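Budget justification, computational time. The allocation requested in the original proposal was used primarily to generate structure tokens for proteins on the priority list. As evidence of use, we reproduce two of the resulting records. The first is shown immediately below.
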Amino acid sequence: MKTILFIIIGLSLLLFCNTGYCNGNTDIKVAQKTMTQGEKSINIASTPELYPLAKSWAEQYSKLNPAIKITITNFTEAQKGSALSFISDYDYTANSNQTNWKMVIGRDVVVAVVNAKNPMLNLILSQGVSTSKFGQFFADPQNQNWAKLIRGGQSLPVKYYVTDNQTLIGNIVNFTKPNPAAVDGIKCATSGEVISAVQKDVYAIGFCQLADLKESNSKEIITSLKILPIDKNGNGRIDNFENIYSNMDSFTRGVWIGKYPNALCGNIYVSASTIPSDKKTLDFLAWLMADGRQYLTTYGYSALNSSKIQANLASLGITQIEAPQTKYPPVSHPWLIILAVLGIASIFLPMVFGHSKRSKVKSGKSAIPELHGLNENSIMAPKGLYFDKTHTWAFMEKNGNVKVGIDDFLQHVTGTITRIKLKEVGDKVRKGEKILTVIRNGKQLNIYAPISGIIREQNQTLINDSWLVNSSPYSEGWVYLIEPKNWTREIQFMLMGEKYKEWLKNEFVRLRDFMAESVRMNSVVYAHVVLQDGGELTDNVLADLGPEVWEDFQTQFIDASK
């Protein structure tokens, strides 16, 4: 261990010497290639609706890189020499002959909006409107009223307004699947006209892009309007996991993790005649993918997920995002060097200790295969088992005792279990009480009893081979044999077969939602969470996250299901 400490300190001192902190040299000099004025410029063309976002990107990047001059022109006036263009789906289709390369940098969203003073607003927000309801509404122009859209709605005619934008109308058609000619609402030249029309008519519906709804100097939508919720699962109500409409942040995050219909989402692109290859442009695009994406939500767009960003960077040949080159003030206090060395040691020592602990974990049988993605198809759900909503299972043996354990979903989330705390044989348990604790490298989750009764047997094998819970959760990894007390009554609250699989779909939505919030609160999650289109997660998603995330998962996910 001493050797490791000396190596860390020696490398740290060497680092400071090389960067000018030693030998009295307190100036940090960044070696830069001498560029001509033309080489320091980036020309960008932007369509009008994307211009505010493009301008913000240019201003923020220029602050970090004063030597780079970014010029923005209107896309319709763009000359062929423009290096980059920011365009939407519609603009790309209309001008496809002007460019040969494009890359998605964000997503725009088509939304339906209603007047906040609509007398049926509470019904609208609680029920939402499903794909099929919208389809029937469009297909029957003689009967377009609120009674057709929501239960208890008034038989009052509904005027609906759409922006005269073929991409937007195409999104609506893809979503509702009517004859394209059926979407023939009142066409407006701009989104502003749509918004104004809905503000004047309390019974109207407007279809426009989310970015057009942002209140001036605010991240929220215009206060006189409400986004009409989409009943995505078509059950006639907005369930808790579908409720993403309370504010702009919640909505854009919901879009990101797949809670909003993909058919209503469009792309915004950066495009060019050929794929960029010069360093200054690649550096700008790399920044756009990293720090620059925060400005998307400010202007009402949805950011890309981490897997799509990595794919973009790979397509550009970018393997590492470099921090902007900035000047630092002179450092003349030796104690700052000491603090820096201690800081580096505090980073590396836990890694060293963690590595030594991990090396003690069994190999061979105990090595649980890792999957690339975690979704509904990853989970085993044997028929004949009763599943509880706290992710435990129960099965009655021939002698009347009930074998219980944790389900495959939970072991996929936690990763390999390194220790289990069990109750004693003879202990009485009640449904919903803590029955065991699963531990992974010191981080733990409490699991609750699916039934009431008396513990008659423990699975003693788990004391030394807790990994069996992962490799074989429904056979060798069982946990207890319990003499049941209220079996007939308690199984009425459990799930079997297809009902369990359907319920799991909602659990994955909850899990994606939880992980997305963790991503927002703690950037370290980015290294472990993969949210592809539709919200796919990495297997063993909690495995290497910190104890604070496990504690949140306990209270917000496990305990919330009791």
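The second record produced under the same allocation is shown here.
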Amino acid sequence: MDSLISSTAIITGAGAGLRMGGEVKKQYRMLDGIPILIRTLEPFFSSSLISNIIVTAPEEDTEYCENIIHQYFDPAPKPFLVIAGGMERQDSVFGALQQCPQDTALVFIHDAVRPFISIELIEELYDLALKEKAVVPAARLKNTIKQVSGDYLEHTLVRDRLVQVFTPQVFDYKLILDSYIKAYNDGYISTDDAALAEHFGAKVRYHLTGDLNIKITDEWDLTLAHLIIEKNIII
């Protein structure tokens, strides 16, 4: 592994979590007695490759979010910052990018409700990002994918050329910042950071991993997450 450089992890947790319903936002919901956000943060706090952490939270939750982090990581093993997110995910990440320390070389952008990543995955993505400048974790598709038009199937997509992508997506800091600036200048909007890098003209490497790096967005996802922990499934 190359000598360590400064890496900032941006954890995007500014969503309202409306699809799960209830009074508690999904990032703060308990997963086997621990908030989902805390499970997500743990490998980033534990990894020696991550220098700083920035968490985006709903504006009304910033103090609450910071208090939860202090509750589980006190003293915090590395610097972290909680900032208010924007109207859209893209706005939240852009705001976080502008708060990164000046010496940041790599940025890990990760969903706050993807609690099943490992330190090993962080290491693999770090090594690839040093060489490629942009890398995302991905998995092969198991099901046939169809494009539709109205109420009818239009055609079948070639599955061998398709992957599903996850986070953390890792980028050279200047590359992803420039990609965001170009996207705003062009009026280009996406919920996927790699799409902005692609729009900028960058080549993005994919890294095949398992497909249980799930994003908890509804009750079924939460049930699956409980099963992953109960069965001690290695991701």
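A brief technical remark on that second record: The chain has one domain: 7-137+164-230.
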